[in-house]
Write a structure and sequence with these properties.
By secondary structure, the chain is an all-alpha fold. The protein is 81% helix and 0% strand. It is globular and about 60 Å long.
Length: 268
């Protein structure tokens, strides 16, 4: 019953969010008015996520105890469901979108992965002991960070800050939440002149930066290799689209970083 109530709450929240953002352009006013819904879901996750995980984990263990082939049977069933319901649609999308970034990526994925065994082989090829160790450490760090976030009531304090800054940013030339550089950046900076970023957010940001630096220091060569392999499989139009997206992301990140760097809070 508790699991069902959680699912109902999450599904209702998702449907409400979909309706709220049913527009061609989303502005910061829409984001501000939806923060309370995100806050409710965040606090629900803090209160129920661990219990839900334990219930699912116990059910999985019971299934494995009753059927030694449960995991493989589940993988086989998922593969069959994909082939019966989605494979033709995925192939049709790749064909109709040929020459675009998404179409090229879909074609590459379909060529590379034709079965669950292909996916498993790919994972085993790249999942070294070092990657496993780093992934395990990252999972433990994420769990500790999430626990600290929930224990300190960070969801609600963050929600109040976001309501304030989104409401302040909305209007005055800042009318598209997908664009930060320019007027939206100026309005965000003016809000920070009178309001400090909550230390809850600062802590997560700093941990994220440390994790990013670690990945770049230890996996940059592999990432560059993957990027080159993907780039080599793109059409001229797909590659141009990817480069345009990269340039846009770099520009927007630079604007966000500039506001953050100039307004870092003093936290213990």
């Amino acid at each position: 019953k508790q699991w069902y109530q959680r699912r109902v709450a999450i599904t209702a929240g998702g449907l409400q969010a979909a309706s709220h953002y049913d527009s061609d352009v989303v502005n910061y006013g829409q984001l501000a008015s939806d923060v309370s819904n995100m806050e409710e879901l965040g606090n629900l996750a803090c209160a129920q996520a661990r219990g839900c995980f334990l219930q699912v984990s116990a059910a999985m263990e019971a299934c494995k105890a009753a059927n030694a082939d449960f995991v493989q049977d589940t993988i086989d069933a998922a593969e069959s469901a994909y082939k019966e319901n989605f494979e033709d649609k995925a192939a049709a999308f790749a064909k109709s979108s040929k020459g675009s970034l998404l179409g090229d990526l879909a074609s590459m994925a379909l060529d590379r992965f034709s079965s669950a065994d292909d996916i498993q082989d790919f994972i085993e090829e790249h999942l070294t002991e070092g990657v496993k160790s780093d992934a395990s450490a990252a999972a433990e760090e994420a769990q500790a960070l999430a626990k600290g976030w929930c224990d300190d009531g960070c969801t609600s304090s963050t929600a109040r800050f976001l309501e304030g800054i989104f409401g302040h940013m909305n209007g005055g030339g800042c009318d598209d939440a997908s664009e930060f550089c320019g007027e939206c950046q100026s309005r965000a900076a003016s809000y920070f002149a009178r309001n400090q970023l909550p230390c809850c957010i600062e802590k997560v940001v700093r941990r994220g930066i440390v994790a990013y630096d670690y990945v770049i220091a230890n996996y940059s060569e592999a990432l560059e290799s993957y990027g080159a392999a993907v780039g080599g499989g793109l059409s001229a139009n797909g590659l141009a689209e990817a480069q345009a997206i990269r340039d846009r992301v770099v520009e927007e990140f630079g604007c966000v970083s500039a506001v953050y760097s100039a307004n870092r809070p003093e936290c213990a």
